[in-house]
Specification:
The chain has 193 residues and is α+β, with helices and mostly antiparallel strands. The protein has one domain. Helices cover 33% and strands 21% of the residues. The chain has six helices and six strands; from the N terminus they run βββαααβββααα. Strands 1, 2, 3, 4, 5 and 6 form a six-stranded antiparallel sheet that branches. It is globular. 24% of the residues are buried.
Length: 193
């Protein structure tokens, strides 16, 4: 998180949607380096991907992780500048910060629609939510957002092969990440990592 005036930032309790499935509670450590999230002074991100069961309408978690800013910075440093430029341009063309701020200030449910397509969450068979957090609070500003899977796929297409290779190398340097998560990230890369 860039240095900001914390008096102007809105904080909320962490919604249950962002809880870790294994203990139905808040994430306490970075999924990648295991650093304690509440004892560090930095912010962190959480991404969760859900798939809706067509038989009963219940949402099932496909993947989830919390990433501290230190690991996120390492990941960002692994990205080639061309990929970063492509993603920034995509976000500028497809994401209206003004519209988002209006939704936040109106108190609207931020998880009702895809932040880019505007498609209602009830129309999606799967989606990702991404949030930014500081200690045991959610930071409300640019995040939280809900994205349909097509957006994640479009963002992945913007990455150069060199960036994808660097990302795979980054994932290989991290210990303690469950092997199934490492394998999943090679085929279905998350949006923020």
């Amino acid at each position: 998180m860039e240095k900001q005036d914390f008096d102007s930032i809105n904080f909320q309790d962490i919604p249950a949607d962002f809880y870790c499935d294994s203990n139905d509670s808040v994430f306490e450590e970075c999924t990648f380096c295991r650093k304690k999230l509440f004892t560090s002074s930095g912010s962190y991100m959480i991404e969760k991907s859900f798939k809706i069961n067509p038989n009963n309408g219940k949402k099932n978690t496909v993947f989830e992780y919390a990433i501290c800013m230190s690991c996120n910075l390492k990941k960002m440093n692994a990205m080639i500048s061309e990929s970063v430029s492509n993603i920034k341009l995509y976000m500028q063309e497809n994401f209206s910060q003004e519209d988002w701020e209006l939704k936040i200030n109106s108190g609207s449910n931020l998880f009702k629609k895809c932040a880019v397509t505007g498609k209602n969450v009830k129309e999606l068979s799967e989606y990702n939510i991404i949030g930014q957090f500081l200690s045991n609070k959610m930071v409300v500003g640019h995040f939280p957002i809900l994205l349909s899977p097509s957006i994640g796929e479009e963002i992945q297409e913007l990455l150069s092969q060199e960036t994808k290779d660097e990302f795979d190398d980054f994932m290989n340097t991290i210990n303690d990440v469950p092997p199934e998560l490492k394998e999943l990230f090679k085929t279905k890369r998350p949006v923020i990592v």
